[in-house]
């Protein structure tokens, strides 16, 4: 896979990556479907990678490929796959960064990552995208404070979807208030209203994404974000290599921990030091 | 900190660790408060470590120490702290495993970890505890499928709290059905009804936790779970040491990636190999 990625990285041109996140039931998939349609009208190839909340044990994707995105099912210019949060795409153990680079090299732009935005996953979304769209439904203001704060921090564009339902204006006002209290880094996240089901307001979301991207490019924030992404991916890969090499020693030492002969932290230091001085060899070398 | 942990690990006696998880609004904190009371009646010192959904950026805890657990605020036999999901406890950069070992050495038992159970956090709960109690509110059956499945997989004991509200019986029936479809490993997770606000049903939860622990000890599952925990902690610590040592090189290489001179995966391999042959030295050595 190394050479494939190397070649893909050389061919990739920095396609825009959009993150779509928000609480369950906010209509993220429908909005994503609409955005797909809007970008397709420009004749571009577009990719959607949906990160489903997957089983921590099977590593499998519970929902499978997004059957809900039926309107683009037969379109060869659209790539739609779901990816488990454990980093598996269609049986392939790939990181979101790898997937994005491969899609970029194939000419897909934008690349949309859709994720259920609760807990850790928002962090993952922002780490892999340039522009994060937070989608909420009316009634958002009633959620617990902490969840709201997490979403507020990652959003570059806010969307109150299902705006034909009661409470939409109130949710938008809550968001506006929170945005105005947040830190200002040159870009003030807009709060938009959509009815994804009918397509209402979707063009405004497309415009806001474009404007955010232009603003990021101008201020240098885009470069910083992408550099941080490169750093994170290198570190992640080093971790994986280290885990592979130290695996047998970790198993051995965990038995010693169970026997009370050592503790996990002393064990880690011993393994680490012996590994650095060439005491452990990767299996197969 | 190394010696402190080493000594604590030697003194720790394998105190029972209980995980309390479930969707926001299910009344986890109130139930935890009740469990605290029940264990305190036995004269034991009890600890609660609450993992709050914290800002991914500040690393800080939004809710602060649990003011809601007011009924035990002045009790010296009770230790209550909140810990951010990024692994910080009161400004200390400690892992849950470290915290549990330190509390264990101080004679706290059980040690209760309370977490908002959505996404990754269930996985973290199960990784650090012996018995996981999943708490839901009536109406649980209406949640999205994926979230339910995630909770079902981690639960050793299920509790429908707020059972004086409509829908409790239906939620319990849904859970019973899901439990019966799940894998059987010798322990069939019970589904209990509680009204934590009044204390109703709390003794049954205490009993179920004890029974699960006995069953785990008998079958050898407790040992396996704890061994896996030791392995995970060793690996986590090795990762941290590796990250520390390779940090300057990662920063350097990420610039090269931005300049198009390499890709993240080739960079990781180069850093890793040079690190293994002694090309990189930890700072300060």
What does this entry look like structurally?
2 copies of one chain form a homodimer. With 285 residues, chain A is an alpha/beta fold. Chain A contains 9 helices and 9 strands. Chain A has a 9-stranded mixed β-sheet, sandwiched between helices. In chain A, helix 6 links the parallel strand 8 and strand 9. In chain A, helix 1 crosses helix 3. The radius of gyration of chain A is 21 Å and the shape is globular. The C terminus of chain A is likely disordered.
Short summary:
The structure is a homodimer of 285-residue chains. Chain A is of the alpha/beta class.
Count of helical stretches of chain A: 9
Measured between the Cα atoms of the first and last residue of chain A, the distance is 19 Å
Helix content estimate of chain A = 40-55%
What strand order characterises the main sheet of chain A?
5-4-3-2-6-1-7-8-9
Low-confidence stretches of chain A: 54-68, 88-92, 280-285
Oligomeric state of the chains present here: homodimer
The number of distinct β-strands of chain A equals 9
Structural class of chain A: alpha/beta
Biggest sheet statistics of chain A? 9 strands, mixed
Overall shape of chain A: it is globular
Fraction of residues in β-strands of chain A: 15-25%
What is the overall pLDDT average of chain A?
82
The sequence of SSEs of chain A as H and E is HEHEEEEHEHEHEHEHHH
Radius of gyration of chain A: 21 Å
Largest interface, with counts of residues having CB < 8 Å to the other chain, equals: A-B, 74 and 74 residues
